[in-house]
Amino acid sequence: MCNLYANTIPQEAMRRIFEVASDFDRLGNFAPLPAIWPKYEAPVVRLDAGGRRELVNMRWGFLTPQVSKKTGKPIQPAAWNNARDDKLRRSGLWKDSFLHRRCLIPGSAFREAKGRNPATDYWFALKGDEDRPPFAFAGLWRAGQPGIEGDAGDWTTYTMVTTTANELVKPVHPTRMPVILDAQDYETWLTGSDEAAGNLLRPFSSERMQIVREGVGLTADRE
């Protein structure tokens, strides 16, 4: 499960890497985000109604209503920031978005924590010529949050797809890691059939990844 990641990719670089025309960059003035938590706003690449790629801000995590077990009254909604790859086709929360609303989530690193009191934080990134080579997580999005009252009910949100952990992540999080897409697969994820997109849901090669930070209390990349 991933509940913290970073996107420190410069705005112009995001447009270039993800092939978004400047007219379809809806971010305004983007500042680097070394710590993105559920319910935070962050950049996402999706297709607009005309099938063109656009960069937009969305909030992380599909929202669902919650009620207090003690009082039965509504409490803060749950934010589903991860979607398991083996549930995309059968879960009511994910299925429609998987079939019709897939997106790319630009990132530069993600964190997993191991242990408790205190936990040790591990920040994972890709290997390459750059310190934190840019990449994209596989994502889903939706507009509007059914059953949620107030402003949050109108949010456009995204979630991050997870799969089996690779050999680098497994010692920290034994079961899951985010799906990281190869650049040549971006178009397939955005526009391909559900079968073609489903074939991309696999662990990223551990040989192409590295741990770039390790320690206690590292709740942001490059604090």
TrEMBL record:
Keywords: Hydrolase, Protease. Pfam families: SRAP. The keyword Hydrolase applies. Coiled coil: none annotated. InterPro entries: SRAP (IPR003738). It is an enzyme of class 3 (hydrolase). Its EC number is 3.4.-.-. The keyword Protease applies. Belongs to the SOS response-associated peptidase family. This is Abasic site processing protein. It comes from Paracoccus marinaquae.
